[in-house]
Structure formats: C-alpha cells, structure tokens
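Exam revision sheet. Question 4 asks you to relate a sequence to its structure. Input first:
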Amino acid sequence: MKPERLIIATALFRYRPDVYKRAGVSNFGGYIMQAEQASLVEYGGWSDTWIRLHPNLFKEETVVESIEDKIRRFTPS
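Answer key, structure tokens:
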C-alpha cells in the first residue's frame, strides 16, 4: 500500500507536532529526505504523491552479528 504524501504530512503535523523539531528539520520535505537517506521510506518523488516504508525494513537478517562487531561498526575510528 502506498498512502498519499499529503495524508502522512497532515497526520504528522496534527498528532506529532514536535516531530520536525526533534528531527532537526522545519518541514515535511526535510523530514522525508532524512528518512529516505536512512532507508526508512521510499517515496514517488515530488512529481508523484505516494510514500511507503522501505522494503528492507521487513527483511530478516540472516547474518548473525556479535555485540563486539556491532560496537566496532558504530565506534568511530
């Protein structure tokens, strides 16, 4: 299902008015750009109206990663 961008933007603004401030952006466009860069959503671009959760969010990871490996991956050099 691909809900329309306007519905998502309106719901965020109405029910979570602090979401843009918490994300460090001032509008829905900035919010979606960050979410897309983080592979959380896909959207049809500004010429289309749909938006959806990124399909990778639903894939199960087959690689088992140890806690030490996770720490190394997130620790700056």
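Marking note for examiners. The radius of gyration is 16 Å.
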